[in-house]
Design goal:
Keywords: Membrane, Transmembrane, Transmembrane helix. This is Late embryogenesis abundant protein LEA-2 subgroup domain-containing protein. InterPro entries: Lea14-like_2. The chain is an alpha+beta fold. It contains 2 helices and 10 strands. The chain is rod-shaped, with a radius of gyration of 39 Å.
Length: 201
Amino acid sequence: MATDQKYQQSYPLAPSNFMPRSDAESLANFRSNNIKKENKIRNILFFTMFVAGIVLLFSLIFVRIKSPQIWLENIRVSNNGDGNINFAAQVFVRNSNYWRYEFDSTLGTITSGGETVGQFIIPEAEVRRRSTKKLYINANIVTPARQGVSNTNGILPVTSQAMLRGKLQIFRVFRRKKSADLSCTMNINLTISAIQDLDCK
């Protein structure tokens, strides 16, 4: 009996939750495989979100780009009485995009009755994102009366036209060509040297 007790003390019973080494390794491998699967799924989700973000970004850049707008305001004319009219105006260029817009200088024309009666230059400039740039132009208009065309009512209808050619700076890496058309009609009252019925499209 004493021998049995000594034997039991020397070799205690294994705990009930003891698992053989092979089962422990299997459990570790199972957990490792689960972690790898979770990481793989997570990487796939991240990659899908990244691709979706790139597609959305390019959609915003290349699909929703708008052409800049250009128009005239605060036009002043002075009739010297010798058939020449001094024409001065403010040119506004609006950029509604999220990228800077740069355009080259361009030559504009003022026509009346299908004939060119004056010219002006819009200087090159840069318009910041979602902002409006103000520029100034001057022109010398030769009245149709001086060109041999009579104008008895003192009203000279004219049309001002120009085309801006420029590029949008996208991330300062990509460039997208965009143009803006200026087309304004108005009546010049030669009697009081004033602009009437200004309409810019």
